[in-house]
């Protein structure tokens, strides 16, 4: 499915593009069923109880343990911060919700799963990515399901994706697929349309020299001064299951917590241009066993 000229001009203007019904109901159900099967297989007794923490959980709170840093070529489970009661002097950390309701995300190489793999690297995706014209050679990385669990589903604070998957020059594009209806009530995405034209990728999320993760300035790029969150013009992007949203690596976007009684399960992966330099400090690194998959 090649993008139309009208879709391409919207992409250029706004920095994101909503494609309703990109996946059929049957295809979407197959991915959702597979997600539920993976969630059912999650065994917290053999898990380090790594939570997916972000800037929303406090300054320098970003997740960065071994389980996270070495997940780029595996299928691993990261927990909602609110699902874990922290350890005390006398009690170990423990889950305070059922295991399948504790998972914030499953990643970061979910395309290793045959169901997610076939849709990620399929012909339709290749055609869209080619027609977008953002990459000479698209490489896929950071494939994951995000669950946004009922009541405890965490906020994804305002960010742009090239900060987290830095290449020189920046080239990240997100493919975000709703496996359930996403509404303002269960935490749909919001965008600041056009911000990709002004936001500079001036910092990047890297492996810290002493372990863990940190943000580091990109040399020779003037830091942004805008308080993006507070700017007017943010637009919610509610969508039905089966919708795919393409996300420019510089566009500012976010999603709120999920206080509702419903999950908000989505599948997402990212692409970078194989012709750009992938930063060796990035938190997510390819491995000899699993280089980033080539879409085209
Ligand atoms: O699904 C969400 O709530 C956020 C996803 C996102 O921001 C991303 O994949 O870049």
UniProtKB/TrEMBL annotation:
Its cofactor is Fe cation. This is Phytanoyl-CoA dioxygenase. Belongs to the PhyH family. Keywords: Iron, Metal-binding. It comes from Cutaneotrichosporon cavernicola. It holds the Pfam family PhyH. InterPro entries: Phytyl_CoA_dOase-like (IPR008775). PANTHER family: PHYTANOYL-COA DIOXYGENASE DOMAIN CONTAINING 1, PHYTANOYL-COA DIOXYGENASE DOMAIN-CONTAINING PROTEIN 1.
């Amino acid at each position: 499915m090649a993008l139309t000229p009208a879709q391409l001009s919207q992409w250029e203007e706004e920095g994101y593009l909503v494609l309703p019904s990109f996946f059929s109901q049957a295809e979407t159900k197959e991915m959702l069923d597979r997600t539920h099967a993976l969630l059912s297989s999650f065994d917290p007794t053999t898990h380090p109880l790594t939570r997916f923490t972000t800037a929303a959980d406090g300054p320098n709170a970003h997740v960065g343990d071994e389980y996270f840093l070495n997940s780029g070529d595996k299928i691993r489970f990261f927990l909602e911060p609110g699902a874990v009661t922290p350890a005390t002097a006398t009690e170990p950390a423990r889950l305070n919700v059922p295991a399948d309701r504790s998972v914030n995300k499953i990643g970061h190489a979910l395309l290793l799963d045959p169901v997610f793999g076939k849709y990620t690297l399929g012909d339709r995706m290749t055609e869209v990515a080619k027609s977008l014209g953002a990459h000479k050679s698209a490489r896929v990385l950071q494939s994951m399901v995000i669950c946004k669990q009922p009541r405890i589903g965490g906020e994804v604070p305002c960010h742009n994706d090239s900060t987290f998957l830095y290449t020189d020059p920046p080239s990240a594009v997100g493919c975000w697929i709703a496996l359930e209806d996403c509404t303002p009530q269960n935490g749909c995405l919001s965008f600041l349309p056009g911000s990709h034209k002004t936001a500079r990728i001036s910092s990047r999320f890297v492996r810290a020299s002493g372990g863990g993760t940190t943000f580091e300035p990109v040399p020779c790029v003037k830091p942004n001064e805008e308080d993006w969150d507070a700017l007017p013009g943010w637009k919610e992007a509610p969508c039905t299951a089966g919708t795919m949203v393409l996300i420019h690596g510089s566009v500012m976007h976010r999603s709120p917590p999920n206080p509702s009684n419903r999950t908000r399960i989505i599948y997402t992966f990212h692409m970078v241009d194989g012709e750009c330099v992938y930063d060796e400090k990035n938190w997510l690194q390819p491995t000899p066993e699993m280089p980033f998959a080539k879409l085209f």
